[in-house]
Each structure stands twice: as C-alpha cells, then as structure tokens.
Specification:
This protein is an alpha+beta fold. Helix content is 35%, strand content 19%. Helix 2 (23-39) crosses helix 11 (292-301).
C-alpha cells in the first residue's frame, strides 16, 4: 500500500529549525523525519524558515511540520500554509494556537470538565505573596507560550515567585504559576484517533527540564508505565477527549500528572511533538509495534485525506 501511495505524496517539505528557543531540537526532529521519508522513497527536502523564504513553500505538494515552539506550532505557519492551500501535518490554526498557549488550554479544559492543576496568572502588579499562599509549595512558574520547559522555575519557598516570574517573562509576557502535582509525570501519544501506550517519565533532575529532556542520558522512560490496564485505558480515552476538545487533529501528545492519591491532572498538549532519539511519541509508537519510519509516513498519510488522490 505504501508503494502505491508514495507518488501520491508528491514533493514534501520538512519544516525544521525556525527561530524559536527550540530551534536545535527542531533541527534534530526534522532531520530524523527527513531521513525516514527518504528511506521510504518519498521525495522530501528540508526547509528551514529561518534561512529560506516561506513563500517558497507554495511549490510543494504538502508539508511535514517538525517545527517546535513559536511560529511553528502556534498557528503561524499553519495560517500561511492554509492561505497557500498546501496540506500539512498536525493541527490547524486555531487548535495550534490554543495548544501552544497553556492558559487558553486550561480555560478550554476547565470549561469541558478536564482536570488540570490549579494555577494563577502572574504579572508585575500581582500580589506575589498571596499567590504563593494560595497555591502552596512547590510552585512551577512557566511562560504560557513556550515549550521544552524553557523559562520554567520550581519555586520552593516564600519570596521566590518574583524572580521566577522575571525568568519566565523573558520568554513570554504571559506567565502562569501552577500548583505542583508530585505523584509522577506521564504522557499519551496520539496518532489520528488512536492513543499509544502511556509513557512514565522519571527524571534524575529536579523536574523534567530541558536538560533532562534532551541532554542527559539518565532520564528513565517507563513503558509499560506501571498503571493498571483499566486505569491506563481510562486515561488514554480522557487524553483523547482532551485533545479533541481543543480541536486538535492529525497527531500530538497530551501530558498529565498523577498526585499521591492516584488522581490525574492534564498538564498540556503538544501539537508538534519532538521526533528526536529522546522523544516520547516515537518511544510509545515503538511499544505499540510501530517503527519510526512507519510512524512518520503514517503521520504524513493523514494529509492525503485533504486531496482528491486520497
């Protein structure tokens, strides 16, 4: 079937790099995706919007988005591709924008009854002491519109919130202070409407920060994740519901936390997840019997649904 569909993909641009704080990670993701497509005999080339004019994307038949962070998964490039009528992987403009914005995600989830950790928006005029008292310690302070744990600080004692806010505000003016949920961090990969096996993340650092995600080799990834089959199935379905509530499509990843009592809280959605050798969706796909090259092609195949050749 793949041989029959290979020509149907036409010429594919793999978007990678970009200008966000996640540029280096995106370059790794994009190169891995490109290599997989080439191994499958698909006519694919790398396209870095930091060094190439995005107007050039109009000549491609479809785009695999391997950009992370601002301008790549916030709806910006999606809007450009929509205007060009060029099919692309992943979610559309609105869902991408909401998914990138942790505050908007929380608002949509709260409206729909999706459990998410308690939080407060923080700004220069905030009553920092009251926020600290309300959320308790520790508190995670994070830019609302960044990924890969960029700009995140773990606040452990009174008086530290101000400095943490200043760090986060350098990455994005919208800053969230979030209550810590300390019973374990997990993620659910989603391909189409299929949920992948849950992965538990056990960092050796203070929390699952940029270093633990991309630079260290001692972070543990457990799949099977250790949850009962019944609970895993329940959370997988809820993760898919949370994904759909935001209007996401194609593929993505929904992260959640467990507390000490066994309750789970959805943290955020990733509409353009990493595809590096440290990345979670390929890891979960492998556990489901889907090798990396097949995963990449399967994601790209979803763009054919918009074509007459599908």
């Amino acid at each position: 079937m793949l041989r029959q569909n290979t020509k149907a993909f036409g010429r594919v641009a793999v978007l990678l790099g970009g200008e966000s704080g996640e540029r280096e990670v995106s370059l790794k993701s994009g190169r891995a995706v490109l290599d997989a497509l080439l191994r499958k005999g698909i006519d694919a080339v790398a396209f870095d919007p930091m060094v190439q004019d995005v107007a050039g994307l109009e000549k491609y038949d479809r785009v695999f988005i391997a950009l992370h962070g601002k301008h790549g998964e916030d709806g910006t490039i999606q809007r450009i591709l929509d205007a060009m009528e060029v099919p692309y992987t992943g979610s559309g403009v609105t869902a991408s924008a909401i998914g990138m914005d942790k505050w908007q995600t929380k608002l949509k989830w709260s409206e729909s009854g999706v459990a998410t950790p308690a939080y407060e928006l923080v700004h220069p005029q905030s009553d920092f002491a009251t926020i600290e008292q309300k959320l308790g310690f520790p508190i995670f302070v994070k830019p609302a519109n960044e990924g890969s744990s960029i700009g995140i600080t773990k606040v452990k004692k009174p008086g530290e919130l101000v400095a943490a806010y200043e760090v986060a505000a350098k990455a994005d003016p919208l800053v969230i202070a979030e209550a810590c949920i300390s019973g374990g961090e997990y993620t659910v990969g989603i391909i189409g409407q299929q949920t992948l096996p849950i992965v538990r993340i056990v960092p050796k650092t203070e929390f699952y920060d940029f270093e633990a995600k991309y630079l260290r080799n001692d972070t543990e990834y457990l799949c099977p994740c250790g949850l009962s089959a019944e609970l895993e199935a329940k959370i997988q379905q809820e993760a898919l519901d949370a994904f759909n509530v935001l209007g996401c499509q194609g593929w993505g990843r929904v992260d959640f936390l467990m507390d000490e009592a066994g309750n789970h809280y959805f943290l955020e959605v990733n509409t353009s997840p990493g595809m590096t050798d440290h990345s979670l969706v390929p890891m979960a796909a492998k556990a489901a019997g889907i090798d990396f090259d097949s995963l990449v092609v399967r994601i790209l195949q979803m763009t054919l649904e918009h074509d007459d050749v599908a």
